[in-house]
Amino acid sequence: MLKNKIKTIFLIALLIISLFLPIVNAENETDTNQAVPINETQNEVTIKDGDEYIFEDNATIDYPVDGNLFIFANNVTITSQIGGDAFIIADTINVEEDGYILSNLFACSNTINIKGSVYNVYSIGDTLTIDGFVYRDIRNICNNLNINGMIGRNVFTDCSSLNFKEQSNTEETSSITSIGSIQGNLNYFSKEELSIPDGHVSGNINFSQLLGVQQNISDYIYSLGAIIVSAIILWLIGLWISPRLIHNDIKKLSPKKALQIIGLGILVPIVLTLLSIIILIIPITSQLFVLLLCVLAVLFFISTSVTIININDIICDKLKITQNMQKLGFLILSTLVFWLLTLIPYLGLVISFIAIIWGIGSISYSLLIKENNNTQVKTDKKEQKKIDKS
């Protein structure tokens, strides 16, 4: 049972850096598949009590959701109230005029159109168009940002073009405001300084020129897709084949064990590299050189996913989540958060380095310390028998 609202997306933000993103979850959740019908003004309205998970080609949310919303679809349309956060990966996302997201919208989509109201927007995609209200901030990466509505606070964007709706007496648009406006500051990154019309930004306009060549939006999407897929596949392998190899026992994650994992994460790559050099020098064992390098490459390849899975295990344990479908949803979310953290200049490199060390150390600990754990269990049983006899 969830008693308190979550103030951070995942403990990864607490272990590395806080994103300061408020997250709202359903309280007193009893059954995530239970829909509660009620009557309002003699019209039957179905309210989804708890988090909603949707995997469809075309998803339409025309009923209230009293919790968080997780969607993987082609086209998404929201025409009702979402009580928590919305996590959406789709080609097109439409939040209509009757759509309300009372907390944050986390979106990875080619086209995002917001005609209703959203608390905060965190997105990556080709085009983001705001025709309604964003009560607080927008943080996004896109090619085209169109502001036809109102942003209550600040905008942080990495974009190629930025357009505002101008005052017009003849044109009819879907925007519910006369002009596009930002009530706070505008902070944007671009190859060159963009033309911002007067009167649309109440605060300061801060421009930062991108160093080097701006990464194409498709590269961002490919990178995100690759890390999500690898984390899911590794999670399924750990779930069905060898759980102990991927999933650490969270309840036994003591400071001593954490230091051992970090130590192994640093030591194992060094040892394997030295062994590779020695094997290459010795003629008899030179054929094992490629095999050892493959092992080292696999460790580096899956290390980040293992770290994300470990963090997701901590979160699910803290939130008392036991259903695999819910764990999968939180795994995708934690992967998205980790990926966003790695995009932060300089800090992203540190985060990636720590994730690789922890992942390699976690796998090495599971393989090398297994016998010690079994011995400790046997010792504890013997001591318990002695206590019972006495």
Number of domains: 2
Order of helices and strands: HEEEEEEEEEEEEEEEEEEEEEHHHHHHH
Describe the global form. globular
Count of DSSP helices? 8
Largest sheet: 18 strands, parallel
Segments where pLDDT lies below 50 for 5+ residues? Answer: 1-42, 371-380
Beta strands, count: 21
Question: Gyration radius, to the nearest Å?
Answer: 25 Å
User: Which structural category fits the helices and strands?
Assistant: alpha/beta
Q: Give the terminus-to-terminus CA distance.
A: 41 Å
Give the rounded overall mean pLDDT: 77
Please report which band the strand proportion falls in: under 5%, 5-15%, 15-25%, 25-35%, 35-45% or over 45%: 25-35%
Helix content: 25-40%
Characterization of the model:
The chain is of the alpha/beta class and 390 residues long. The chain has two domains: 199 residues, no CATH class; 162 residues, no CATH class. The chain is built from eight helices and 21 strands. The two termini are 41 Å apart.
What's the helix and strand layout?
Blueprint: H1 11-15, E1 35-40, E2 43-49, E3 52-55, E4 58-61, E5 65-66, E6 69-72, E7 75-78, E8 81-82, E9 86-95, E10 100-114, E11 117-124, E12 127-130, E13 133-134, E14 138-141, E15 144-147, E16 150-151, E17 155-158, E18 161-164, E19 181-182, E20 186-190, E21 205-209, H2 217-240, H3 243-246, H4 255-281, H5 288-318, H6 324-342, H7 347-368, H8 370-389
Parallel strand pairs: 2-5, 3-6, 4-7, 6-9, 7-9, 8-10, 9-10, 10-11, 10-12, 11-13, 11-14, 12-15, 13-16, 14-17, 15-18, 16-19, 17-20, 20-21
Antiparallel strand pairs: 1-2
Helix pairs in contact: 2-5, 2-6, 4-5, 4-7, 5-6, 5-7
